[in-house]
Write a structure and sequence with these properties.
Structural class: alpha/beta
Bound molecules: adenosine-5'-diphosphate, zinc ion
CATH topology of one domain: Rossmann fold
Helix content: 25-40%
CATH architecture of one domain: 3-Layer(aba) Sandwich
Strand order of the largest sheet: 5-2-6-7-1-8
Order of helices and strands: EHEEEEHEHEHEEEEEH
Oligomer: single chain
Number of strands: 12
Distance between the termini: 59 Å
Shape: globular
Largest sheet: 6 strands, parallel
Number of helices: 5
Strand content: 15-25%
CATH class of one domain: Alpha Beta
CATH superfamily of one domain: P-loop containing nucleotide triphosphate hydrolases
Length: 201
């Protein structure tokens, strides 16, 4: 939704856990902009090469072409000044400088649509998403379905033991869970080795 007139810039953020349809929603909005013959540029961090280098691909296989970037400065460097709509997926991997960059883009009159994980594998706010939500004109929070109980799911459950903030993967490494079924300790290396030791005694 964007009722802004006269080239007023605008920031939209779509956030939620993995499998909640963020990429699908981002692609839907960008596709509509393309149908309206607006000039669109789409960026995603190069870190996420699960499916394709040059496309954003949703878990349901919907896709749209995109350009890989390393950080916010990279977005500015690749920006075509004629671009009217800028899409950014997996914004949680692009660093805090992204906040200033998207405000600048909106001040230049661009419509910026951002998707990203709002919380990490421990359920903590995943920066810079909280800051992006604060500067946004419009916010959409998407929920997945908890694979354990079928309730609305707001968490991304990591199924492999690792305490690194970023472990890129999809099916088999992460699943969507509701507040009640979320078990952040499952990802903890320490807890896992304690479990193994107890089993060995
Ligand atoms: P995100 O970008 O938030 O990770 P995607 O847009 O890539 O999400 O994928 C959303 C799609 O994932 C859904 O339309 C559905 O087909 C599929 N899916 C797989 N597992 C789940 C789940 N647990 N809850 C909801 N959708 C799921
Ligand atoms: Zn549940």
């Amino acid at each position: 939704m964007n009722f802004a007139k006269g080239g007023l810039g605008w920031i939209e953020v779509v956030c939620g856990p993995m499998f909640s349809g963020k990429s699908e929603e981002l692609i839907r909005r960008l596709r509509r902009a393309e149908i309206a013959r607006q000039r669109v540029q789409i960026f995603k961090p190069g870190i996420d090469q699960r499916y394709a280098d040059d496309h954003i691909v949703s878990h349901s296989e919907v896709k749209i072409r995109s350009t890989n970037v390393k950080n916010a400065a990279d977005v500015m460097e690749r920006l075509d000044l004629r671009t009217e709509i800028i899409g950014i997926d997996e914004a949680q991997f692009l660093g805090m400088e992204l906040v200033e960059t998207v405000v600048k883009l909106a001040d230049m009159g661009k419509r910026v649509i951002i998707a990203g994980l709002d919380t990490d594998y421990l359920g903590r706010p995943f920066h810079p998403m909280p800051e992006l939500l604060a500067v946004a004109d419009e916010i959409t929070k998407t929920l997945a379905i908890c694979v354990q109980c079928g309730n609305p799911a707001k968490h991304t459950q990591r199924l492999v033991a690792s305490e690194d903030l970023i472990v890129v993967g999809a099916a088999g490494m992460y699943e969507a869970r509701c507040r009640r079924c979320f078990e952040p300790e499952l990802a903890s290396v320490k807890t896992r080795s304690e479990v193994k030791q107890t089993a060995a005694v």
